[in-house]
Amino acid sequence: MNIMQPFTTQIDLHSGVFNPERQIIRRYLSDMQTTYADESAVQDILKQEGNRLVYEVHVTDLPEEEGQLLHCTTIIYPGRVGTEYHMTKGHYHSRRDRGEVYLGLAGEGYLVMQTETGETSTLSIQPGTAAYVPPYWAHRTVNTGVVPFVFFAAWAGEAGHDYGTIEQLGFAKLVVQHDGQVVVIDNAKYK
Question: How far apart are CA 102 and CA 16, in angstroms?
Fold first, then answer.
């Protein structure tokens, strides 16, 4: 048995940055070309503005195994692709029977969830909001504000991430701007 040593990480509660810095995963628009419903808007942005940073994840360096409690902060930068707000790719857990907890730190956004049987849920998150993603729910987060949306997340080490199912099927709901308002609509491309 390998006994780990306890450790601490300082988290800037406004920016979400870890100190000491840990692993950082950055997702650019080119990494998410099929994530957005309006793929022509993606191509227009890539041609006109270049490859914009959509979000980054600051992750603790822990093994993805039973007994570990993984955690991170995610920073989704403000912006839209067509009418859709910037968002994470979204995923199911590889072990579907594992949940996750989110805590809003800065900015504002939505947690969009769905089950494989078609049930959907959308929750608003602001600083201080704790949101629970139950087992069996895919989840993605969306920045609906004008400043970075920052949240803390924790999940079981053995949960894993299944991005492939979402890449193939998409999400049933989209979060868009319509007449200056945040609106949740059906995704016509959902399979």
Answer: 13
State phi, psi for 116 to the nearest 5 degrees: -70, -15
Compute the distance between CA of residue 153 and CA of residue 52 in angstroms, rounded to an integer: 24
CATH class of 11-186: mainly beta
Measured distance CA(114)–CA(82) in Å, rounded: 23
Amino acid at 84: E
Model confidence at 1, pLDDT cuts 50, 70, 90, reads: low
Single-letter amino acid, residue 158: E
Residue 165: left if φ>0, alpha if ψ -120 to 50, beta else—which one? alpha
Exposure on the CB side of residue 89, measured as CA atoms within 13 A: 23
Alpha-carbon distances, residue 117 vs 91, 110, 168 (angstroms): 15, 21, 16
User: How many angstroms separate the CA atoms of 13 and 152, rounded?
Assistant: 9
SS3 call for 56: strand
- Indicate the pTM of the whole model: 0.96
Token pair 């191509």: residue: 43
